Amino acid sequence: MLRSSEKIWLKENRNLPDPESVQGMMELSLLKLRSLNYPNVTLSSRTDGGVHALKSSAHFDLERYGTQIYDANNISYLMNRYFFVNNIGIIVKQCLRVSDNFNARFNATSRRYLYRLAVLKKDVVIPENVSIANVIPVEEWKRCHFIRLAEFDIEKFKEGAKHLEGYHDFSTFKKFDKLLQHKHNRRELKSVTIRAGKPVVTAHTESRGSAFDYWDIEFHGRAFVHNQIRRMVGTLISVAIGKLQPDDVKVMLQIPSKHSWHSFIQNCPSDGLYLCEVEYDPKDLFYDPDTTVESETLVES
After folding, report:
1. DSSP strands (E only) in 142-295
2. Which residue intervals define the domain Pseudouridine synthase I TruA alpha/beta in the entry (predicted)?
């Protein structure tokens, strides 16, 4: 189990491995190539601990003696072999050579996140002194956010989500940090798509039926502030159960402040959040030898 995507940074020296992070494990695997430089990995997205990644990306530079460069396919093979031998849940799907000025984080044109929500069906009755965990499929443990709310209305949920789309100041939906309180929080949320989901379980569990209605909430935007998606989902759940009106979401955007946040809103856990895709302009993934010197950069997904 890895702590998070990013490794812990030390001011004195960033060239130190961190085996408890995705970034650190990638660097440890790249050290097997014995490049002249330390293979510092730059991630495209800084996700919190507990957030899943179905398809992410990163870049790094490798230097070696002479004019010969590292083979991209060989890099992905060696990295995957290292992860497999050490039982690490990371898979490199593709390795590409790109231009020297490519940056996996800042060249990204958009990102897609998915939040999986499961609501206990109205006709399923569980005594108050019985935990909801009794009916959660074991295959879905830490993979979805399960709630038991009798008054949940998905139509109100969708109505509130419409207000989130567009270019807004999302300060209200950001986890407050004194050190970053003056950083601008204006972002464009291109779309919020809500559709019926389904459990990710074995055929044996599926044959026993499901006690939950599953919903997939997909967010599409170029960038997001810290905890934005988890706080937006928590807000929409409050709308769905009647604690907030759909128009209250608009007010939270019109008055962007930590004081516009309602204390009764629950910040949703990271269990149900997935980074699905990081998108780039295809031209940025094309290596042009006329404009760059020889180097090696990885795009991992």
Report:
1. 145-147, 166-169, 186-196, 212-221, 273-280
2. 161-281
